[in-house]
Design brief:
Length: 207
C-alpha cells in the first residue's frame, strides 16, 4: 500500500475514533440520543415484534446535589449509567444518556419474556447502594417501557421513546406501578411545545 494512502486511511480512522468519542457522554461513557434512535430505527426494520425501549429517570437527584454536593450527584449518575449499560449490553442492547438524569435503553426481548418482570428486576439492580467519599448513596430510578409492536408500523424511534417517557412519568408520579408498559395513547399523548406534559416549562394554562 502506498505510504500516502496508508497515511490517509490512518488519519480517517483517527478522525472516526475522535467523532465516536465526542458522541459519548464523558460522565457515564454511554452513547448519545442519536446513537440510540439510530439503533432503534435499524432494529425496527427487521425485528419490530421484539423491539423494546426504556426510559429511566433518576429520582431525587436534586436533593443529593443540594445536601451532599454535585460530586455525589455525578457519582450517582455515573453508577446508574454504568449499570444500565452493562445490563443492556448483556442482552445485546445499548443504553444512552439522554441528558441530565435521564437515560434510554433499547434491546430485543426474546419471545415469551415478561418485560414488566425484567424491568422490576432492573430497578432492584439499579437501587443497589453506592459508596462515595464515605457516604452511602441509595439510587432510586423510575422506568417506563414501550414496545414497538404496540405502536403502528410507521412509528419512529422518537415516537417509541416518547411512549416510554410517558410511561416513566406515570410510574414516577405514582399513577402506574413499576413495570407499566406504554399504550398507544401514551405514545401519542399531546405535547407542550414538543415536550411531554410534566417536564419543566410545560405547565398548561388553566382552562
Amino acid at each position: 500500500m502506498p505510504l500516502a494512502l496508508a497515511a490517509l486511511l490512518a488519519d480517517d480512522v483517527r478522525v472516526r475514533h475522535q467523532l465516536e468519542a465526542a458522541r459519548k457522554d464523558p460522565l457515564t461513557g454511554l452513547p448519545d440520543r442519536d446513537a440510540l434512535t439510530g439503533r432503534i430505527d435499524r432494529l425496527a426494520r427487521s425485528h419490530r415484534g421484539q423491539l423494546l425501549a426504556l426510559v429511566a429517570d433518576a429520582d431525587g437527584l436534586k436533593a443529593v446535589n443540594d445536601t451532599l454536593g454535585h460530586d455525589a450527584g455525578d457519582a450517582l449518575i455515573a453508577t446508574i449509567g454504568h449499570r444500565l449499560g452493562s445490563w443492556a449490553g448483556a442482552r445485546g442492547g445499548i443504553a444512552a444518556r439522554l441528558g441530565g438524569d435521564e437515560f434510554g435503553v433499547t434491546l430485543l426481548l426474546p419471545p415469551g419474556t415478561d418485560a414488566a418482570r425484567e424491568v422490576v428486576a432492573l430497578r432492584a439492580l439499579l437501587a443497589q447502594p453506592v459508596d462515595h467519599a464515605g457516604q452511602t448513596l441509595r439510587p432510586a430510578v423510575s422506568i417506563g417501557i414501550a414496545r414497538a409492536a404496540d405502536l403502528p408500523d410507521t412509528a419512529t424511534a422518537s415516537r417509541l421513546l416518547r411512549g416510554a417517557d410517558m410511561a416513566m412519568y406515570l410510574v414516577k408520579t405514582g399513577q402506574q406501578p413499576c413495570g407499566y408498559v406504554a399504550t398507544r395513547q401514551d405514545a401519542y399523548a399531546p405535547t407542550v411545545r414538543g415536550r411531554r406534559p410534566g417536564r419543566p416549562g410545560t405547565h398548561l394554562a388553566a382552562g
